[in-house]
């Protein structure tokens, strides 16, 4: 399973022959200026919620690739009304089987609206169970006891969690969340893009080390294999 990071909370997963993109916010991100959105290929686009810094490039990428946007009902419908031909609406607790595996939508504690200010339903995270690995994409969320339900249903190999604080968990809460989900490997996201969420990378790495967790902070454009 290959993972490419495009900044903020945007990751591209190559799972078998499928390319699965999460929360594309690239073109307005000055730190991702080296990334050409038109070069990104995606079969599926999973959106955790409707805020601009998670959906900005979703419509363009979906139309370029005839991608399927997977999101909570209100967001999927909004993109459908904006000309995206393939959408799959979901809601919290639901699960769908796709060519690359199963996707379960789980709760996230966060506000939610679309770029035009319209109602976007609930914020969400995803648990993806693929043949190679099972992972948890937390989305923008606070620490919540709901996370303890995840390992009761899934054997999670790693998690992607926000660590930027202010709008989401900080690294301390993310490490508690990792315990709740029963993972030792965490890919950090939702940090550094804006002044409110700047982090001290050495400090957050030390926090993870102190609780025996592996925290991975990827460079924009970097690809790793897990």
TrEMBL record:
Limits of the Metallo-beta-lactamase domain: 7-190
GO MF annotations in UniProt: hydrolase activity
Superkingdom assignment: Bacteria
InterPro entries: Metallo-B-lactamas (IPR001279), RibonucZ/Hydroxyglut_hydro (IPR036866), UPF0173 (IPR022877), UPF0173_UPF0282_UlaG_hydrolase (IPR050114)
UniProt-listed SMART domains: Lactamase_B
Signal peptide: none
Protein's UniProt keywords contain ATP-binding: no
Pfam family membership, one: Lactamase_B_2
Keywords: Hydrolase
Presence of the UniProt keyword Hydrolase in the record: yes
NCBIfam families from the UniProt entry: PRK00685.1
Family: Belongs to the UPF0173 family.
Protein name: UPF0173 metal-dependent hydrolase SAMN04487941_0853
Organism (species): Pontibacter akesuensis
């Amino acid at each position: 399973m290959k993972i490419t990071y495009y900044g903020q909370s945007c990751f591209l997963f190559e799972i078998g022959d499928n390319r699965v993109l999460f929360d594309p916010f690239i073109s307005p991100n000055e730190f991702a200026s080296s990334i050409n959105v038109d070069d990104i290929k995606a079969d599926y686009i999973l959106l955790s919620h409707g805020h601009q810094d998670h959906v900005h490039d979703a419509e363009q990428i979906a139309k370029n690739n005839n991608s399927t946007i997977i999101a909570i009902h209100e967001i999927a419908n909004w993109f459908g009304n904006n000309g995206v031909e393939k959408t799959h609406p979901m809601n919290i607790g639901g699960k769908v089987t796709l060519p690359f595996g199963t996707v379960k939508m789980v709760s996230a504690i966060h506000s939610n609206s679309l770029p035009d200010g319209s109602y976007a339903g609930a914020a969400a995270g995803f648990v993806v169970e693929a043949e190679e690995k099972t992972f948890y994409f937390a989305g923008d969320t606070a620490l919540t006891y709901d996370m303890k339900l995840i390992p009761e249903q899934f054997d999670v190999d790693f998690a992607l969690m926000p660590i930027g604080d202010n709008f989401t968990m900080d690294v301390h809460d993310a490490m508690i969340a990792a315990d709740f989900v029963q993972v030792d490997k965490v890919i950090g996201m939702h940090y550094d893009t804006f002044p409110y969420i700047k982090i001290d990378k050495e400090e957050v790495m030390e926090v993870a080390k102190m609780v025996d967790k592996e925290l991975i902070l990827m460079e924009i454009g970097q690809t790793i294999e897990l």
